[in-house]
């Protein structure tokens, strides 16, 4: 493991509004650390990495990291990421989104990126709420939980991002948490080097907008909740109601960019391109 100071100086832009905007106790900083450690572990040249982010608390990650970065419009991060990967398949394209960004306004793009199996890694930071814009209910807010737009509790069933993306056809699908940081490092590392579309959902506490409205006394209690209410997939029993974490799907099918390259080569060989 590299020295923390070395990683900070090598991978962060120090002229970009530090200290960061994340609230005390927010899990997003831990996920950012996992992303940096994963890139470092794979020894990827920074010029070969592209981080694309949408709007929201998680979108600030594209501002802080010293890679090729694009800070895009709300819900459209995956469309930009798809275009970048198709234009230059050798790049490692990582798309950072929140649960609202990925599952609400960007939900259709998430489904079709998985269906196409494009070689992009989607990192979905799920804090179960719209954190930056006032604490509204998101597609991942658990049923019965409180938000600014559901003061008496949400009546809607939330999306399960893992099931959604698996059903849509992604190659690699995993879930981790910001409490299980070492495990999250491994999941992101695996996802980046996996062919085709990969998604890692990272459960990331929001003490300010979600925790206060749902009777968590402080940020520590939210991490204690994650520890108590999650279970590794291989240890889960049939009647276990805890949230499973781990790798749910790992296939080796070629990505869209690889299939496109094969088609182009075939047509050129026939004199048709």
Automatic annotation (TrEMBL):
Keyword Mitochondrion tagged: no
Keywords: Oxidoreductase
Record GO biological process: cellular respiration; small molecule metabolic process
Annotated ranges, domain Thiamine pyrophosphate enzyme TPP-binding: 56-201
MF annotations from Gene Ontology: oxidoreductase activity, acting on the aldehyde or oxo group of donors, iron-sulfur protein as acceptor; thiamine pyrophosphate binding
UniProt xrefs under InterPro entries: 2-oxoacid:Fd_oxidoreductase (IPR051457), THDP-binding (IPR029061), TPP_enzyme_TPP-bd (IPR011766)
Pfam family, one: TPP_enzyme_C
Highest taxon above the source species: Bacteria
UniProt name for this protein: 2-oxoglutarate ferredoxin oxidoreductase subunit beta
Lineage: Bacteria, Pseudomonadati, Thermodesulfobacteriota, Desulfovibrionia, Desulfovibrionales
